[in-house]
Structure formats: C-alpha cells, structure tokens
Structure to design on (224 residues):
C-alpha cells in the first residue's frame, strides 16, 4: 500500500525531512515484478517492460544508493553546501524509485475495465462518472510537456480524489501532498519502442492493464 511505502521500500515520499536517517540504513533494491515481462502484451510489449524495469528503474535505484552515500558523508562532515547540492539528484532518483515501485503494481495482465465498490463510488462523486475521470486523467497525461507522470491522488485533508501531473520523476506526495493511488508513466522509455511518438495510443492501451484491485486497496488504506 502506498501509505505504507516508506516503511516497505525504505524510502519516503518526503525526500528531505527524514535524511538524518541516512546515517544507518539498508540499500534500496530493485523490486521484482509480480508478472512476466511479456504478461502485459499486446498492450505493453516485453521489450519495453524488460528495459523499463531492469535498466531504467534499476538505474534510479543504483543512483539513489550512490547519492545517499554521498549525503551521509556530507552529514558526517557537517557540509551543508554539499547536502543542498545533492538534493536535486536525491529528488530525481528517489522519485524515480518511488514512482516506478508504484507503477509496476498499478499494472496487471488481469487488469482493465472499471474499479468496483468504494473507489468507483468516490470516482463518480468527484468526477461525475468513470468515463469522465478516464478522459480527464488521459488528457492530463497526454498534456505533460516532455517527461513526467499523470496521477490519481487522494487529498487526505479534503477527503477527495484529485488528478495531477508531475514533471520528470517528481514524486506526487513529496511535491503536492496528494497520496498517489494510480500513476501513469509518460516518459518516452515507457512506450516509444512500441508506440513511437504517439503518446495518446499508449495511453489508450494502458487502460486495458490497470490493476484496479491494487488501486482500490491503496485507496482503502489511505482513508484509515
């Protein structure tokens, strides 16, 4: 569950505040996928999944470990200048690790269709209908300039669902305060080998593999 991600993944959506914890920690690791690389075909092909997971996500994990070691050294030396200079890399690689860890569980070979129960009712309440929600999240994701993510998030203070976009690998909760429920990666590495530069075709296809059971579980956990 995303609300528990900081404990489960040894990361935090708030990337700056808990950095004192870096003095003693375990290294981040690349999570296994809960399905085979070819399991999402024909909607997302095996080559994309393999490169996306084993190369791109792995690079974020490796770089995050390196940056945290440097940050640990800067903390030990009391070098505030070095700490500040490392924060963009920490945000980028830490966000990349957080975002992709969520993304893999948001997908399933048994996905697609519509959510059920409490999540569906919340979507209807906050967006009018599931079709309207789908159209809005697709439009926001298509409209991301360059690289980034489209998100369905939960505003805990207002008790409502919200759609948002984040640039690059900015983590949703760390930059907007929204708790991420469903993330759609619109970096070109997520679709270019199959869909070329036609991002709308990729977004049309990805709805066929959305793991609504996982999204619903995140929503239920975040409301507690």
């Amino acid at each position: 569950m995303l609300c528990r991600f900081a404990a489960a993944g040894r990361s935090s959506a708030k990337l700056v505040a808990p950095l004192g914890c870096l003095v003693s920690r375990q290294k981040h690791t690349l999570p296994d996928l809960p399905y085979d690389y070819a399991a999402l075909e024909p909607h997302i092909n095996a080559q994309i999944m393999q490169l996306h997971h084993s190369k791109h996500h792995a690079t974020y994990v490796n770089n995050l470990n390196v940056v945290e070691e440097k940050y640990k050294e800067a903390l030990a030396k009391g070098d505030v200048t070095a700490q500040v200079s490392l924060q963009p890399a920490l945000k980028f690689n830490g966000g990349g690790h957080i975002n992709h860890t969520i993304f893999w569980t948001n997908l399933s070979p048994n996905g697609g269709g519509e959510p059920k129960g409490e999540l569906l009712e919340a979507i209807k309440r906050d967006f009018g209908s599931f079709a309207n929600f789908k159209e809005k999240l697709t439009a926001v994701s298509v409209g991301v300039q360059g690289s980034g993510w489209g998100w369905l998030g939960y505003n805990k203070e207002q008790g409502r669902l919200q759609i948002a976009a984040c640039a690059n690998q900015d983590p949703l909760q760390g930059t907007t305060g929204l708790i991420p429920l469903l993330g759609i990666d619109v970096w070109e590495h997520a679709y270019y080998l199959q869909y070329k530069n036609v991002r709308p075709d990729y977004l049309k296809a990805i709805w066929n593999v959305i793991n609504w059971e996982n999204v619903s579980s995140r929503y239920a956990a975040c409301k507690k």
About this structure: The CA atoms of residues 192 and 198 lie 8 Å apart. The first strand starts at residue 148 and ends at 155. The radius of gyration is 18 Å. The chain has two domains: 46-106, 117-223.
